[in-house]
């Protein structure tokens, strides 16, 4: 299941690809354990106040982001593919158990690909959207800065606390 | 992966459950080969003019229904789970490769469960909706008659052509 990603669609997808100097196993750990996810998933000074990860197709991926002022933003999605150490796919278009979501505020599917490269990892995060407008909206909300900063935090956390 | 279905939600789901006298293997065949699907999937005198089945998570499930007057109604969805002989899940909330669909006209996820019972099969088709309104709309469109008639056609076809 790990080699099926189509080429990104330039009108519909957003891609963050980078080689980072932590091994694939630690990137996977950081993505799949709640206690690790809380340390890096949301760009500081925001934080991940709560999360729930049921790592199987159809399982829940729930997050609660919290602003510096304490306002909370819950979100619920559904895992679609879980290939340990290699590939994690989830969407907010479906709720747990694959139930269609009722008009998510921002609709996307995320594909996280983790491949060994040298001593580190080639990390590719792709967000798939339903329309050019959806893609543009996600980009304006700060996809590249947000996901890039989160990846910086993941790398820092993995190097200092997981290695 | 085959025992995870939650209990149906009475406000959001539609369920067709019936014991039929063809074995699970033939029900599976009927659902998963284009040449078989065309024979039973659409209540006559409508027909399935074309279809495409890529039986893997993220793979396309595309159908083109045709009215007696020759009007065609294409639809594209995405498989989510493929457990041979037991369980088939697909949704129209996502396009192939898990891309969120852009406002499907009728949004649902379908779970087909096939279990041996005596010489036959306990067949359960569950349609999951995002809202009570979505469920009501699907019911008014004839979920029970349509899916029930299609199942009758499946059984007849399997008994006469696949057994």
Percent of residues in β-strands of chain A: 25-35%
The total tally of domains of chain A equals 1
Poorly predicted ranges of chain A (pLDDT <50, ≥5 residues)?
none
Q: How many helix segments of chain A?
A: 4
Q: What is the fourth-level CATH superfamily of chain A?
A: START domain
Question: What is the overall pLDDT average of chain A?
Answer: 94
Largest interface in this structure: A-B, 30 and 30 residues
Plain-language structure description:
Two copies of one chain form a homodimer. The first copy, chain A, is an alpha+beta fold and 163 residues long. The first copy, chain A, has one domain: Alpha-D-Glucose-1,6-Bisphosphate, Chain A, domain 4 (2-Layer Sandwich). Helices cover 28% and strands 35% of the residues of chain A. The first copy, chain A, has four helices and seven strands. Chain A has a seven-stranded antiparallel β-sheet. The radius of gyration of chain A is 15 Å and the shape is globular. The two termini of chain A are 28 Å apart. The mean pLDDT of chain A is 94. Chains A and B meet through loops of A and loops of B.
Element layout with pairings:
The structure is a homodimer of 163-residue chains.
Chain A: E1 13-20, H1 24-32, H2 34-40, E2 47-53, E3 60-66, E4 72-83, E5 87-91, E6 109-117, E7 120-128, H3 132-140, H4 143-162
Antiparallel strand pairs in A: 1-7, 2-3, 3-4, 4-5, 5-6, 6-7
Helix pairs in contact in A: 1-2, 1-4, 2-4
């Amino acid at each position: 299941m790990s080699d099926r990603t189509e080429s990104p669609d330039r009108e519909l997808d957003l891609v963050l690809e980078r080689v980072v100097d932590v091994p694939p196993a630690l990137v996977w750990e950081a993505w799949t354990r709640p206690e690790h996810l809380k340390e890096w998933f949301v760009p500081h000074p925001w934080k991940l106040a709560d999360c729930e990860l049921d790592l199987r197709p159809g399982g829940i991926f729930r997050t609660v982001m919290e602003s510096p002022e304490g306002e909370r933003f819950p979100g619920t999605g559904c895992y679609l593919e879980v290939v340990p150490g290699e590939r994690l796919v989830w969407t907010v278009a479906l709720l747990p158990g694959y139930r269609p979501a009722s008009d998510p505020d921002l609709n996307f599917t995320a594909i996280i690909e983790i491949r060994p490269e040298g001593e580190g990892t080639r990390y590719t995060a792709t967000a798939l959207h339903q329309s050019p407008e959806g893609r543009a909206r996600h980009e304006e909300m700060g996809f590249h800065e947000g996901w890039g900063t989160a990846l910086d935090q993941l790398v820092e956390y993995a190097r200092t606390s997981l290695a």
